[in-house]
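Annual report, structural modelling task.

Input specification for the zinc ion complex:
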Amino acid sequence: MSVQLTEQDLKRYSRHLVLPGFGVEGQNRLLSSSALVVGLGQQGLAASLYLAAAGVGHLGLVEPEEGERPEFLRYAGGAGALLPVGAVRRRLEELNPAVRVDQYLGTGMEDLVARYDVVVACVRAARRREELNRFCLAHRRPLVGAVVRGWEGHAFTVLPGEGPCWHCVFPDDSDALLTEGLGLLVAGALGILQATEAIKVLLGLGDPLSGRYLSLDGMTGRLRQVKCRVDPGCPCCSGPRGE
Ligand SMILES: [Zn+2]
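The model returned the following structure:
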């Protein structure tokens, strides 16, 4: 489906339209695309704000499961204020009325994954990243993931059938560790990076973080890339249960 850009759209996206490889065609494709953001802490909030501002036409927001909710309230709402997913949705719609935003509870994830063009994983629990990895592989949906460990964060994109999956790269993944201060900034920075990755994947632009992951050390300000490859013994993407 192609979307006709209005005069207001041309003004709103003027900075994208001049980017190499983007243009009116790219913006139209983005407006016809969808992204599912799972988890709405600092990381997911940053990702969803930038995806909406960029004009991804349909965003799905998945509320964190019960165990993750305190973090969501604390960081997204600030100062202990309550900021339910509905408030995030309204904020995104205010930011860009051209974007349709749907919200979900964290159930029926496999069906949700199958309905969106790209999945952005911003969850704290390692088992949820593993689950999203499996669902994305099964439905051949790109997965843009990131995990925070205090001052450090790693971002990685799974392109099913084209490179390693999340489990190949992080077989010992553990729950995200968020700390005060810079740890949260790292989470926000990763969320913006994930939005950029998702947009690249949706438009087929540039080199996604597949076959390598990006590691950000907030303490030293260092960025490094780590090469990674498919694990032939990976229970998710290799062997009889994989591809
Ligand atoms: Zn794998």
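Residues 70-82 have pLDDT under 50 and may be disordered.
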